[in-house]
Amino acid sequence: MGLAVLYSRALYGLDAPLVTVEAHIGSGLPAFTIVGLPELEVRESRDRVRSALLNSRFSFPSKRITVNLAPADLPKESGRFDLPIAIGILAASGQIPKNGLAEYEFAGELALSGELRPVKGVLVMTLNAKKTGRAFVLPAENAMEAAIVKSAIIHPARTLAEVCGHLTEIAPIPKFAGSPETRKAVYPDFSEIRGQAHARRAAEIAAAGNHSLLMIGPPGTGKSMLASRFPGILPEMTETEALESAAIHSLSNSGFDPANWGRRPFRSPHHTSSAAAMVGGGVSS
Predict the structure, then answer these.
(1) At what angle do helices 45-55 and 82-92 cross, to 10 degrees?
(2) Runs of H (alpha helix) within 60-215
(3) Mean pLDDT, to the nearest integer, of 85-114?
(4) So what's the pLDDT on residue 56?
(5) How far is CA 139 from the centre of its chain?
């Protein structure tokens, strides 16, 4: 029998609360149970983890396995818990050492072959992992996005075997040293607006004073054109503002493009769009 404890992150709006992953292997009939308010995609990780372990040349214990994702009242969703669950089972069964697990946080979806697939919300999780002083082990495809968080310690891995090699110190994964290639933000030119002296003046005052602006008028009067050029007269985003904007993109299905770092977002939904269409139609983050 064995118990292993390690850490991961859930997503709750723009926050990434800490999740303690506890893996226990005990005597009894073979079973694999995940508790801690897991949603369907987390419960399905049992089959992904089993195949990933076997295809990575590890043994899957034929005992009673219980994985607890604490706190129990926090919903857990997506496949990001595949990697910490697999590492917990390996550590609890003695196939990799337990010492050192507290120094890391883990996130990543496992393919049946043991490869790591990217997950969303990495930027938010990295921000919170940095505050605890822990290093973050994640899929290699997410490393560039996570590198936006300055001074964060990131270990990118492509397979479950690579992560185990790092934890056993047989083949340590070097810290990610890359940095996203950013470019200067270019916006539509505000000078292209002809006429509309009152609207231009209102936009300039709103930009200078950090005010909100509501434009009302019939179609074709230039509201959308003025709004699309409004970001170009705003001051450059602070690092905090840029991180908040990037975190929202990181949580979306489209993900965050590091090349857009520091660029003020602009959205122009059609006037017939419903609220559900604009926020995602009920897709949880």
Answers:
(1) 60
(2) 82-92, 122-132, 143-146, 160-167, 197-209
(3) 96
(4) 97
(5) 11
In whole angstroms, what separates CA 157 from the centre of its chain? 16
In this structure, what token pair is assigned to residue 134? 């822990």
CA distance readout (Å), 66 to 34, 63, 98, 155: 6, 10, 17, 27
CB atoms inside a 10 Å sphere around CB 154: 25
CB 284 within 8 A of CB 13: no
Highest mean pLDDT among 29-38, 120-129, 221-230: 29-38
C-alpha span between 113 and 69 (Å, rounded):
24
**Which residues are CB-contacts of 235 (< 8 A; sequence separation ≥ 6)?**
none
* Residue 247: predicted pLDDT: 76
Average pLDDT over residues 46-75: 96
* pLDDT top residue among 33 and 267: 33
In the chain, what are the domains? 2-167 (3.30.230.10), 190-272 (no CATH)
Cβ atoms < 10 Å from Cβ of 6: 25
pLDDT at 279: 65
How many other CB atoms are there within 10 angstroms of residue 84's CB atom?
Answer: 28
